[in-house]
Amino acid sequence: MISVEEAKAIIEAEVNPGKIMIESVTEAYGLTLYADVIARNDIPNFAQSSMDGYAIKFDDRQGQLSVIGEMPAGATIQLKILAGEATRIFTGAPLPEGADTVVMQEKVAIDGKSLLIKDESIQRGQNVRLKGAEIKNGDTAMKAGTNLSTAALGFLSGIGCAHVAVFYPPRVAIVLTGNELQEPGRELQFGQVYEANSVQLSAALKNTGIREIKIYRAEDDPEKLA
């Protein structure tokens, strides 16, 4: 019998990092990054509204404004506002050229195409996510050695990353010993107990990205085990 620490030391001494593979982010859950992921775009790649409301020039906040159009999320045509103008804008939409602030729709009074701002506490740049606010082109988005959790994979997808370089997961064998062990689903004989360790260990290994797991059963016989 050896200690847990000794067992870990033996495993670490024998395990080779192994091969590298390129994997789709949709299939990479639980795997480990081999190389840093570098952002290839500013995210967002345009100044973006973080609120439904009206895009304005901050310096025009105290006057009556003329609403000249609207910018929905996914808009591909850039609008431009001049002094005294505003546009209706929705969460996630690009900020019109010339605008620098978004006023929440609950903080304005609308009369036809005329708009008055009722929010005296508004600040320049309010409710705007600037280009590159989340990450900038060329930044290290994720470090090598990162375990690819659900959150990590969501982040990588959100910056446009479709494939990653990862370590090929190790293959693991589980050896079950004990004459008293019976497989779940079979009838217990006198002196037997159901074996549960392989199920628990396999689930834990799969949760770390290990995909190839083999289970072997052995009797309590040193010669057969050898």
Notes on the protein architecture:
With 226 residues, the protein is of the alpha+beta class. The protein has two domains: 123 residues, Molybdopterin biosynthesis moea protein, domain 2, CATH 3.90.105.10; 82 residues, Molybdopterin biosynthesis moeA protein, domain 3, CATH 2.170.190.11. Helices cover 15% and strands 28% of the residues. The protein contains four helices and 16 strands. It has a six-stranded mixed β-sheet with strand order 7-4-6-5-9-8, with no helix packed on it. The longest helix is centred in the first third of the chain and has 11 residues. The mean pLDDT is 91.
What topology emerges from the helices and strands here?
Blueprint: H1 4-14, E1 20-24, E2 37-38, E3 48-49, E4 53-56, E5 65-71, E6 85-89, E7 101-104, E8 108-111, E9 114-117, E10 128-129, E11 140-142, H2 150-158, E12 163-167, E13 172-177, E14 181-182, E15 193-194, H3 197-207, E16 213-218, H4 222-225
Key descriptive features of the protein:
Molybdopterin biosynthesis moeA protein, domain 3, 226 residues, 15% helix, 4 helices, two-stranded antiparallel ribbon, 2 domains, single chain, six-stranded mixed beta sheet, Molybdopterin biosynthesis moea protein, domain 2, alpha+beta, elongated
